[in-house]
Write a structure and sequence with these properties.
Length: 462
Amino acid sequence: MIRPRVQYGAAIWHRPEDTRKSPTTSQVNSLTTVQRLAMKTITGCFRTTPTTALQHETQLLPIELELRKQITKYLTRVQTLPETHPTRAWLLKAIRSHNVPHNKRHPSNLEHLVKQYPDYIAKNMEEIHPYIKPPWWTPTNITTHVANKPKDKAKEEHESFLKDNDTPNTLHIYTDGSGIGNQIGAAAYSPTTSTTAHRCLGKADTANVYAAELTGIHLGIDMAGKSHERYNKCFIYIDNQASIQAIDKPKQQSGQYIIRDILQSLDELQNVRPNLKFKLVWVPGHMDIAGNEKADEEAKKAAREQPTGQTPVQNRLKSVQVMKINEDTKTAARTAWNKGNTNARQLRKMTRPRRVKSGVQLYGSLPRKQLANLIRLRTGHCRLNSYLSRFNIIEDPSCDCGRGVENVKHFLLLCKKYEEPRNELKKKVGGRNMRMEALLGDPQLVMETLEYVEETGRFSFV
């Protein structure tokens, strides 16, 4: 609720990575203060806990990366606008201005984004319209069916359906989309006529499997259109529910141009072969349904071996670019966390192994008191003597047991005062898991660790 409000219109008032000509730094600092207040309220951590540690534990992006992600998504969305849209015209003007050498005038926000993020400017971005059919439109020669059943029950229903519809005037077609070797392919296969159709959509940085599923449906409809006149019923089986729903109720969405082509083909067939009726039926994937497995095999073949005479689809999907933006942002956040060394050293060291979790995976099911105790122990900002001494609350950081400084490792693994509850903990988690990374980072073990914390009575929850 807070984040959408503070980021509203960010493309207007924030210029990512421009620290010379705009108040980028002060904007980030102000919003980080708001974010920090929210994170402290959520976690119950001490006010001395580093902001970077809180962002890692709550899985919230640093403000500068969050703003950059939202603004680059806006840049992507602008590129998908119809050519007649005024904002699209301004973007094209910004691209032309960027290509002019030695242009010294003050750049607009769009010009700044074009210059700053050239990898996100695509000449072949798909165009998305508010609608491709009127809101009251209903298909006349096609129906859909998605069974709300478990996969095994859906398979049984499909096998029974095939037996009931094994008639000379019925055409059965299976379609599928697949990605392999960074290539995307689609295929349609008809066991009725023993024919196949293939389409290579190109690389995974342009298309995705969802687009391939839609393309497979289009191939199936074209196959039916070229079939013998005796067929007046065509069942197309798809293992992707989203693509069926998109055709049934087309929206303002990525892949819209493929849906538009499908509906146009259906309209043309309605005029040419008015007796031919289609039904899109969901079948469960990877359930040893012969037709579905064959379509999957042919789709992988289309991805690996571009069919002769075909040119891969050139339109870049908005959804593919949005996915790339999300991945780039996560990579930047992970790199910044792994390379940082100015604070949160204990937490950074503990979270290097990939098996150590954070965020919802670790804290999602914990009550408030246990959540606060866990994050305090993970960050080292808790009421142990090492922390209290560091902030001049007490003078001596040593533990009362006399075996060294009382830090988190000492409290969990070494302190003589808590040998009895520690032995119980060891029995529950096993000797090899008596390590800080496992005790404080494994979702299956943290409850046992927190029970140990309760039994020691060392902390009073505040």
